[in-house]
Write a structure and sequence with these properties.
Number of domains: 2
Order of helices and strands: HHHHHEEEEEEE
Structural class: alpha+beta
Shape: flat
Low-confidence stretches: 106-111
């Protein structure tokens, strides 16, 4: 059994949702609930959330849920579509990164795009802010990245991208120019650039 707090409403809500799905599937398919439990859990894990439009599976694995076994090719009505479904599954796997929705966060919080790369400068959110202290610390250099987390220079743990935001440009040291150039305007559409 799953350990839970007796007053935990999330547990009871999820339990009643599981029971409702199992009851509906049992009535429709007339099979034992033991055989239908994986189908009910898959349905729950692949149902999108109303606010974000993301499924629990996508939030956990940062990928859309893809079927591993398609319909049996001997099915007469859907057997003609097997090639189409196989091609569609291939295209979904190939372009999964392009079609994923971006996480939705608070307007006050800067969510990083998946383009976070090693060497980028980011600020780290303090999870227990003190009065009159900055909410963000840094800048820190990103050492390693995954689609949803990053490891920072000088820290042992990984940080979720919701705890990071891009460092402002004024906090970075200004780049040193290798050479200086001067420009001279010769006319409305002409300019001369010299070292």
């Amino acid at each position: 059994s799953i350990p839970h707090c007796p007053g935990d409403t999330r547990y009871h809500r999820q339990h009643s949702l599981n029971t409702a799905h199992l009851t509906r599937l049992t009535a429709e398919l007339r099979l034992s609930w033991v055989h239908l439990l994986p189908a009910a859990l898959t349905r729950i894990r692949t149902t999108p959330h109303a606010n974000t439009g993301l499924t629990p599976f996508e939030l956990l694995y940062d990928r859309p849920y893809l079927l591993t076994n398609l319909l049996d090719p001997s099915t007469p009505t859907l057997g003609t579509y097997l090639l189409y479904f196989t091609l569609l599954r291939y295209l979904l796997r190939e372009h999964a990164d392009c079609v994923l929705l971006q996480p939705v966060g608070d307007h006050n919080q800067a969510i990083l795009s998946p383009a976070l790369a090693p060497g980028d400068q980011v600020l780290l959110k303090t999870l227990t802010p003190q009065p009159l202290q900055p909410r963000w610390t840094g800048p820190f250099t990103v050492v390693l990245t995954t689609p949803i987390a990053a490891k920072l220079w000088g820290y042992k743990s990984w940080y979720h991208i919701t705890q990071l935001k891009w460092a402002p440009l004024h906090s970075l040291p200004p780049p040193k120019p290798l050479e200086t150039y001067t420009s001279k305007i010769l006319g409305p559409t002409k300019i001369t650039i010299t070292k």
